[in-house]
Design a protein that fits this description.
Layout lengths: L1 H17 L1 H25 L3 H19 L2 H10 L2 H7 L4 H30 L8 H25 L3 H18 L11 H7 L3 H14 L6 H24 L9 H6 L5 H12 L1
Helix pairs in contact: 1-6, 2-3, 2-6, 3-6, 3-7, 3-8, 3-10, 4-7, 4-8, 6-7, 7-10, 7-11, 10-11, 11-13
């Protein structure tokens, strides 16, 4: 069974490399955006170099997950591929976890390129502690990958999936701390930003990896929130997964909104701490 799983994962990785649209969103678009914004953003805001590495990594992760995984799953479900897998004994576990693992592998390659480029080309601030940096990357990639799979499961069509993905993607770029430090946001927007995975990812990168702050409940909270989100996303994926193209009942699709719960609770946790 493990050999079959490994073969399926290998096929998924190769298919992603051969798919030009996937290569665009996973590598070319994030790296091109990184080079373009690196040419002018530090002149507008010199402090951008302090958040450039994690910001561009997060941008790549969101592009390589939210903009690719849902549409692959939707196309496979609508094209009857899932039914073929079911007939041939492929478990739902593989169909849910393989896109996640494949995305994390691709994101690790993109992250290595962006981290190296940030430091060598633009002189951006580099991590002072690499272990928390790697941990923050892993949890962030898993969080967005599982969220992307969940979108692919609940979305009724490519158009619907695009709307859901963009509803997360665009606010994350604007409010998540990728372009502008979170401290510069008004209090109201800062609270709203806490509902986004990107905000917690940037907090983890900045406090533990780049600043090297001590491990406290406050500094570790973003990692705990991301971990909780991964668990909730996976539970929802397994609970809502279906083999055929029949749309999920509205009541069942609404259950997916509980994916916001870890982030909503984090707002209360911050106030307590």
């Amino acid at each position: 069974m493990m050999n079959g799983y490994a073969a399926h994962l290998s096929y998924d990785l190769k298919a992603g490399v051969r798919d030009t649209s996937h290569m665009l969103m996973i590598y070319l678009f994030p790296i091109g955006f990184f080079l373009m914004i690196g040419m002018f953003m530090p002149r507008i805001n010199p402090e951008f170099l302090d958040i450039m590495a994690p910001g561009m990594i997060l941008f790549a992760i969101m592009s390589g997950t939210l903009m690719t995984i849902p549409f692959t799953l939707i196309a496979s479900r609508e094209g009857g591929i899932f039914r073929s897998f079911r007939v041939n004994g492929v478990p739902a576990t593989a169909l849910i976890t393989i896109p996640v693992i494949g995305a994390v592998i691709h994101m690790a390659v993109a992250t290595a390129i962006l981290t190296t480029g940030s430091g060598t080309i633009f002189g951006a601030l580099m991590p002072v502690r690499w272990a928390p940096f790697v941990l923050a990357f892993g949890l962030t990639a898993l969080c967005f990958a599982t969220l992307a799979v969940l979108i692919g499961i609940v979305a009724q069509s490519n158009r619907n999936g695009t709307l859901i993905a963009q509803a997360i993607y665009i606010p994350s770029v604007m409010l998540g701390g990728l372009m502008v430090p979170e401290a510069l946001l008004p209090d109201g927007l800062r609270a709203a930003a806490s509902l986004l995975p990107a905000t917690h990812a940037m907090r983890a990168f900045n406090t533990l990896a780049l600043s090297g702050e001590a491990l406290t409940l406050t500094t570790v909270l973003p990692l705990l929130v991301l971990s909780a989100s991964i668990i909730v996303n996976l539970i929802l994926c397994f609970a809502l997964f279906q083999w055929d193209s029949r749309p999920l009942p509205t009541a069942r699709r609404m259950i997916a909104l509980t994916a916001v719960l870890p982030f909503a609770l984090s707002i209360l946790a911050v106030q307590v701490l």
